[in-house]
Amino acid sequence: MLHIEGLTSGYSAIPVLNDVSIKVEEGQFVAIVGPNGAGKTTLFKTISGIVRPSTGTIRFANQDLLSIRPAQRAHLGIAHVPEGRQVFPSLTVMENLEMGAMTEAGQRDWKHNIERIFEWLPILAERRGQFAGTLSGGQQQMLAIGRGLASSPKLLMLDEPSMGLAPTIADFIFERLIEIRRQSNLTILLVEQRVAEALESADHGYVLEAGRVALEGNNQTLRADDRIRKAYLGM
Amino acid sequence: MTQVLEGFLQALSAGLLIGAVYGLMCVGLGLIFGVMRVINFAQGDFMMLGMYAAFYFFTALGVQATFGNTFGPFVAILLAGPVLAVFGYFVHLTLISRVSGTRTSSLEGEGHYAQLILTLGIALILQNGGLLVFGSVLASIRTPLSSSAWELGPLFYDVSVFINKARGIDAVVSLVTMLLLTLMITRSRIGKSLRAAADNPTAATYMGIDVDRAHRIAFALGTGITAIAGGLLATNYPFHPFVGVEYVIVMYAGVVLGGMGSIIGAFWGGMTIGLVQQMSTLILPTQLQNAAIFVVFLLIIFVRPQGFFGRMVERT
Question: Which residues of B touch A71 (CB under 8 A)?
Fold first, then answer.
């Protein structure tokens, strides 16, 4: 579904990503892990069109994504749940969800989607009239995920959903994501620093270090890999 | 005693009526500067164009003949709004978009320096172009209502208040326009996407909102709104091609007073300025009206730096 090949990208002249190739197939849950500054967020921004790559190709659903304007990419079925949540603070929870549903598919499925989102993340139903800026960090993260789901995406991209959250809340959000995936069969691309949790729930993983893919493999191979066990899992 | 009271009530009512129009004028800039963060020093001159557009609609393009002297001016003013909105749309498309929006969002100063110079340039061109095309003779959009009044009262004892009919209708038109705009911004899909684009342009792009298009729509709306306010002012005040200079600072003061980013705040900011301007005539000579506005402005900003409706916490 998403095929990234030989991607070099970054800000001004210095590339953050170096010759990165990543594949996400339909229905897959792929996790990209790695330390701070490895280029995980830059990768997502390049997929969404906020950062322009210098070389490489990105194909999504058999289309050349790089030839499509950033604002159009959501309409193709890519939902980007950004790092640091980035909800619209002066809009209410409900209005934030409506913004998620700006895509044609999101409008078509609005009734169905909103029901499911409220079922999965009931706190959003409770707070629907509240301004998003007044929500707690965990609630904002749930809203950001709900907003992504409201677009009826083909691919849900999650950028560090656990960032800045208390461990119990981060655990809860992970548990929700697994449940959402189980029920909806959504294709998910997740970027995380919490390596253990991310690799545990994903089918396939990539380790990104200093802008390069250092390691890739399926769930078992990665978790069995000595380097990962030492560096990330503390074993 | 009754004379003082009558003077006070008279100034208060005049302040409220003028304030409603100033409020609308500030809302136009509020959309552009407060919400979209684009510095536009040509806003006063857009207003001047709105005044002349209304003037020519009324006198030369048949509005006077069709709708008569009394209500014709208001029809002409409401026509000038959409015309200036289209003008604003193209100014944004051809010029402003090159120094604002996603193009400059990652630059230091978000393109504000370029916006400053560009819009000052546009202002100069419009002022001097206006002089060339419209001439330096004072123009006005007078209606017989401009020189007649409703008498309220006597309220008590012998105190009664006179409401200038043109100003009264100006205020009503202003409030109705403001109400429609507020409904549009708060309820409609396009209004919500404008607010989302202002809140967080990057996240709005992730939602599939074309942020530059959202900016263009806000710019067009802001220009049209200020043009309508300009037309309304012109029913009482004569104007000339340089009239924008007198109002643009008042507009900025109103937007800042109301709180950056708040549409309703910009309206109350403008209203405050109208009230202060009219009330100050009770104790100060007329020449000091504008000085009084800025003294009050500074006092309010001193105690409430974020303005009436501004948030202390800025966008994250």
Answer: 205, 208-211
Compute the nearest-CA separation of A228 from chain B (Å): 32
Per residue in B140-155, is it b (16+ CB within 10 Å) or e — as a string?
ebbbebbeeeeeeeee
Helices (H), B95-210: 112-134, 165-187, 189-199, 201-206
Q: What is the pLDDT of residues B217-229, one digit of tens each?
A: 999 999 999 999 9
B210 touches chain A (CB under 8 A): yes
Q: Contact B140/B239 with Cβ under 8 angstroms?
A: yes
First to last CA, chain B: 54
* Dihedral sign computed on CA atoms, order B298, B262, A124, A41: negative
Q: Up-side HSE of residue B196: CA atoms within 13 Å toward CB?
A: 32
CA distance B80 to B244: 16
Instruction: Provide, as residue numbers in chain A, all residues whose Cβ is less than 8 Å from the Cβ of B196.
Output: 88, 91, 95, 99
Rounded Cα gap, residues B28 and B43, in angstroms: 8
Contacts of residue B205 in chain A, CB cutoff 8 Å? 48-50, 70-71, 74
Query: Which tokens sit at A52?
Result: 């322009």
List phi, psi (to 5°) of B141.
-110, 80
Contact check, Cβ <8 Å, B196/A50: no
Compare all CA atoms of chain B with the CA of A48 and give the residue at the minimum distance: B206
Share of chain B above pLDDT 90, in %: 55
Q: How long is chain B?
A: 316
pTM, entire model: 0.88
The interface predicted TM-score (ipTM) is 0.92
DSSP class of A59: E
Tokens of A101: 């549903």
Q: Which two tokens stand for residue B307?
A: 């303005």
- Which residue in A77, A96, A57 sits closest to A188, CA to CA? A77
Non-local CB neighbours of A160 within 8 Å, separated by 6+ positions: A40, A41, A83, A191, A192, A193
Q: How far apart are CA B163 and CA B172, in angstroms?
A: 13
| Mean pLDDT on A56-63 | 92
Do residues A33 and A205 touch, judged by C-beta distance below 8 A? yes
- A91 to chain B: which residues are within 8 Å by CB? 192, 195-196, 199
Biggest alpha carbon distance in chain A?
A: 49
